[in-house]
């Protein structure tokens, strides 16, 4: 009896434990389900939040600097140019305004390397621009010479000399420099010829000095030329500032370099979206101006080698969160294909301007294709709140501006990754529109909006001069430390010690 009386409560206890275990199991399952649902909700929330992650208001400001600031002043021993030079250096800078700008920087550096007196660079009045303004017509010559006093001797022309009682002008020996020539070419072949003839004439002079040079002081000299010495003439600066003031009178504005032009489309080989007649024009232009190469549109498009269409630019901006109140200044030549390509963009962003619509003086209307129009576009893009290049491959205009805006205080840039965006646009064209805008945002969030970043080939030094032309006040690495603010006073002292304090007057004659 005792045993049976003892077993009954044990069964009850076991039953109770079993019931409790069952209830706990159910509770755990419910808890797991709840946690799973919560995690799913969080993931969903995070996924949805990516559609609003791009803070448009933040983009209207400058990018994070990380404590860096622009500085191209010398940070190590940088003696002034000697009173005696090895001869005169003439260069002819070919290409458009911005290609010429890079060539001028290279010319100054080449003169420094060879201890040569630089003759004011010549700007090629090429058949495309039909513009013979020259250096004196675009840039402030006096400012250019004065700013580079510590770096090179500069004259406006080769002076005449007396030989056997006769006045003669030194004839410069013409040389064709190799593309991306190393420093050694200038210190050997070019210098030898200069000493033999007294002067050399390098033509053509575009991309004729290697960009990547393992000497930060040489790179900083390029920045001094590009961002300090090369200043447009006062009337160009004033005209540009008046346009910027007009654009900014109603708030923020962005500039877009819409590179949907005949030369770039022909270069890229992107023909299939055009009519048969338009394709003939593009193919003819390509045959006449570029090397023969087999180009398949679908292949080019799939890897992002085609310039973005105006419609695609509009879709990117809308996906990022810009609305139809956004004011946009278009820096571009004549768009190929006409209004039918602009219509979708204009319907989304109707507040479009260009230099002819905002220029009240009418000066640009007389010179829309010349260097003046390009100079004004450059200045307006430099000073705008946001700059967006749509094709920054071989486009010197876009690449130079990206570098200048970086140096000008990390001003915001929107650089579409065409390779990442291409499959997204292709899917959309096939009717797969679900998740399109989110996919665009995800691609854009991986791009750089104008902050300091490592330069990786093929990115040009003129596009990104960090870190050589930047510094930090409190840097861990001594090489990154900012030079003293009185660096110019020290250079003035060096000039006086060399006995060439009157260099400025002599150099400008």
UniProtKB/TrEMBL annotation:
One of its GO terms (cellular component) is membrane. One of its GO terms (biological process) is fucose metabolic process. Residues 481-509 are annotated as: Disordered. Keywords: Carbohydrate metabolism, Fucose metabolism, Glycoprotein, Glycosyltransferase, Membrane, Signal-anchor, Transferase, Transmembrane, Transmembrane helix. Its main location: membrane. GO terms for molecular function: glycosyltransferase activity. InterPro entries: FucosylTrfase_pln, GDP-Fuc_O-FucTrfase. Pfam families: O-FucT. CDD domains: O-FucT_plant. The keyword Glycosyltransferase applies. The chain crosses the membrane at residues 21-43. Signal peptide: none annotated. The keyword Chaperone does not apply. Belongs to the glycosyltransferase GT106 family. This is O-fucosyltransferase family protein.
């Amino acid at each position: 009896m005792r045993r049976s009386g003892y077993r009954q409560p044990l069964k009850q206890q076991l039953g109770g434990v079993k019931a409790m275990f069952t209830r706990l199991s159910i509770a755990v399952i419910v808890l797991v389900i709840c946690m799973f649902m919560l995690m799913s909700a969080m993931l969903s929330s995070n996924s949805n939040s990516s559609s609003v992650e791009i803070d448009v208001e933040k983009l209207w400001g400058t990018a994070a600097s990380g404590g860096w600031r622009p500085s191209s002043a010398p940070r190590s021993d940088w003696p002034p140019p000697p009173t005696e030079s090895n001869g005169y250096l003439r260069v002819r800078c070919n290409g458009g305004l911005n290609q010429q700008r890079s060539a001028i920087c290279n010319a100054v550096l080449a003169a420094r390397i060879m201890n040569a007196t630089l003759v004011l660079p010549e700007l090629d009045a090429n058949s495309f621009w039909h513009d013979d303004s020259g250096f004196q017509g675009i840039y402030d010559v006096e400012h250019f010479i004065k700013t580079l006093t510590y770096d090179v001797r500069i004259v406006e022309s080769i002076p005449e000399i007396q030989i056997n009682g006769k006045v003669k002008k030194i004839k410069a020996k013409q040389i064709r420099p190799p593309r991306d020539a190393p420093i050694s070419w200038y210190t050997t072949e070019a210098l030898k010829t200069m000493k033999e003839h007294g002067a050399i004439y390098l033509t053509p002079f575009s991309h004729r000095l290697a960009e990547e040079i393992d000497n930060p002081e040489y790179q900083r000299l390029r920045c001094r030329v590009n961002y300090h010495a090369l200043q447009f003439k006062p009337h160009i600066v004033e005209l540009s500032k008046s346009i910027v003031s007009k654009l900014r009178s109603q708030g923020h504005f962005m500039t877009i370099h819409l590179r949907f032009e005949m030369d770039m489309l022909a270069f890229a080989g992107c023909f299939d979206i055009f009519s048969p007649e338009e394709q003939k024009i593009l193919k003819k232009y390509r045959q006449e101006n570029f090397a023969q190469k087999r180009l398949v549109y679908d292949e080019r498009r799939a890897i992002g080698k085609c310039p973005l269409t105006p419609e695609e630019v509009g879709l990117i901006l809308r996906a990022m969160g810009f609305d139809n109140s956004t004011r946009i200044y278009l820096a571009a030549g004549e768009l190929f294909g006409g209004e039918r390509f602009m219509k979708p963009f204009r319907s989304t962003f109707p507040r479009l301007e260009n230099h002819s619509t905002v220029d009240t003086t009418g000066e640009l209307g007389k010179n829309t294709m010349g260097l003046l129009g390009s100079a004004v576009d450059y200045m307006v893009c430099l000073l705008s709140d946001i700059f967006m290049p749509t094709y920054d491959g071989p486009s010197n205009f876009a690449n130079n501006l990206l570098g200048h805006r970086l140096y000008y205080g990390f001003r915001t840039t929107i650089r579409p990754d065409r390779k990442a965006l291409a499959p997204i646009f292709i899917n959309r064209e096939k009717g797969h529109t679900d998740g399109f805008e989110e996919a665009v945002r995800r691609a854009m969030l991986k791009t750089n909006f104008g902050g300091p970043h490592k330069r990786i080939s093929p990115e040009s030094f003129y596009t990104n001069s960090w870190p050589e032309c930047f510094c930090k006040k409190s840097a861990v690495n001594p090489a990154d430390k900012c030079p003293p603010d009185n660096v110019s006073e020290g250079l003035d002292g060096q000039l006086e010690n060399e006995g060439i304090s009157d260099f400025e007057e002599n150099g400008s004659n």
